[in-house]
Specification:
By secondary structure, the protein is α+β, with helices and mostly antiparallel strands. It folds into three domains: 40 residues, no CATH class; 94 residues, no CATH class; 37 residues, no CATH class. It has six helices and six strands, in the order H-H-H-E-E-E-E-H-E-E-H-H. Helix 1 packs across helix 2. The longest helix has 67 residues. The N and C termini lie far apart (93 Å). It binds zinc ion. Zinc ion binds next to helix 5 and helix 6.
Length: 231
């Protein structure tokens, strides 16, 4: 690398591509910063997220989407029994778990020495293992809470439909009550009355008043109301 070199305006035909990139990468401000970021060492959790921590081994268990009962069962040991040395890899997926179109996956990790050198565990290692176990339990509880929340969210959708149905029924009831009140008001206006004379016929008080004639009871308005189909 030549620190004095500045990239030419147009790259010369003789310059190889890799050389041009290298020079540009060092001199150019943005590319230099990007290269610096890439060189930062990965954190423990980033390594776990990539299932690439050199001191740990990783495993994945899989089941059907939303019908998987063994989501918290760790990978099996050589006898086919759940191996408690596996703990959930809470840095991978969503807190150690991921849901796909047809499947779900649980991600597991354990220190590479867990199975081989458990006997020579120092007090510090024992304390760390205890903390790891506690963290794993907390992570499992968190995961269960998350799954419960997801299920509650789905149930919430059904609840909303039911609430909407009740609202519509209440609205329909209120509209019916309003219509009945309006009809009652119309009936109270179109009252039936009998003349004081020896006329034996009944008349509509309202229709008589507005027409100035003798409109027999029931008047057209009342007849129309009486024709309403009864539900
Ligand atoms: Zn009338």
């Amino acid at each position: 690398m030549n620190p004095n070199s500045t990239p030419p305006e147009g790259s010369s035909a003789r310059e190889s591509t890799s050389e041009a990139e290298e020079v540009h990468g060092v001199v150019g401000g943005e590319n230099g910063a990007q290269a610096g970021v890439q060189r930062l060492p990965l954190s423990e959790s980033e390594l776990h997220a990539r299932q690439a921590h050199p001191d740990w081994e990783y495993a994945t268990t899989e089941g059907p989407r939303k019908r998987w009962h063994d989501i918290d069962v760790p990978p099996a040991d050589e006898h086919g029994d759940p191996d408690p040395t596996w703990q959930r890899n809470t840095d991978a997926g969503r807190m150690g778990w991921e849901r796909f179109d047809y499947t779900e996956e649980s991600y597991w990790r354990r220190p590479k020495t867990a199975s081989a050198e458990q006997v020579e565990e120092t007090p510090l290692q024992a304390a760390r293992a205890s903390i790891d176990l506690r963290d794993a339990v907390i992570a499992q509880l968190k995961l269960r809470a998350e799954i419960a929340e997801a299920k509650a969210y789905e149930l919430d959708g059904a609840t909303n439909v039911a609430i909407r149905a009740i609202q519509l029924m209440q609205q329909a009831g209120a509209e019916r009550d309003a219509a009945e009140a309006a009809i009652a008001e119309v009936r109270s206006v179109h009252r039936q009355y009998r003349s004081a004379c020896d006329d034996a016929n009944d008349y509509c008080a309202h229709c008589n008043q507005i027409s100035g004639g003798w409109i027999p009871w029931p008047c057209p308005t009342i007849r129309a109301l009486d024709k309403q189909p009864t539900v």
